[in-house]
Specification:
The first copy, chain A, has 153 residues and is α+β, with helices and mostly antiparallel strands. Chain A has 6 helices and 6 strands. Chain A has a 5-stranded mixed beta sheet with strand order 1-2-3-4-5, sandwiched between helices. The N and C termini of chain A lie far apart (43 Å).
Chain lengths: 153, 153
């Protein structure tokens, strides 16, 4: 399997598989809606993401199967001498390939992409109820230096 | 002072005052460069921010003085049924007005703006070495549900 995984920008045709991965998760099952047809809000978000050159929905593929997803945004901030940051969101792999290193490949791809773009840091937040995810990112070199705060609107 | 504070988008002419506020801080003093003229990287970031309709550098003003700054980005994600999120970064107030509620007004302004845009959540990360900042955000209703991870590139 090692040599056959590749990454590409998601297309509209990938959306159902992406939402299926997002929903196949303890937290995701409570907040996603995997329906046929998909709720319009996913399509609207997909088009808004596609319209932004610095917001990328990326899928990992194995042959013609989508086996992983992540979203990478690159944002200019005024802090850190006007530096760009990359942010990773919504990392998921298909249940059929879990434990096979696809998540690691996804994150390493994002790190490389962020470097190419000239970002000085790559960041993400992970729910404190996911200790395994925290350890996964720490193994990849991330440091939990910050509190991640949210306020529902 | 209460009634005289107002908020507006930052202009290029505000940049020196903004960088002065960012640099007047334990962490910021190590990573910003308050020079005359300002390093070009701040101007490039300012123009990149201005070119994005969903990335806003906001200043709080009192009369003709800039007394606070924050950056608000609004981003469409595929997670949460394709929901938009608002992210706050680089919140600072001028030393001369600290403890006068300007920070609270800035954040409440951002919350209102994020609601108007239809964001389902507003989020930020705060360095674990800033316990006062954490308490400040918790008082405003934010919950530290996530770990904030960073990897320098």
């Amino acid at each position: 399997m090692e040599t056959e995984i590749f990454f590409r920008m998601a297309t509209e045709e990938d959306l159902s598989e992406i939402v299926a991965m997002l929903a196949d998760d303890v937290l995701g099952s409570q907040r996603e809606r995997l329906e046929d047809p998909l709720p319009e809000s996913y399509l609207r978000a997909f088009h808004a993401i596609s319209a932004d050159p610095f917001n990328e929905l990326i899928v990992a593929c194995h042959g013609n199967k989508v086996i992983g997803v992540q979203q990478l945004t690159m944002t200019p901030f005024i802090t850190h001498q006007g530096g760009w940051r990359a942010t990773i969101e919504g990392v998921r792999t298909a249940a059929s390939v879990r434990g096979m290193g696809v998540g690691t490949k996804l994150i390493n791809w994002a790190i490389q992409r962020a470097k190419e773009h000239g970002c000085h840091v790559i960041q993400l937040t992970t729910d404190k109820s996911r200790p395994d995810a925290l350890r996964f990112y720490e193994r990849l070199g991330f440091e939990a230096t910050h509190e991640g705060l949210k306020l529902k609107l």
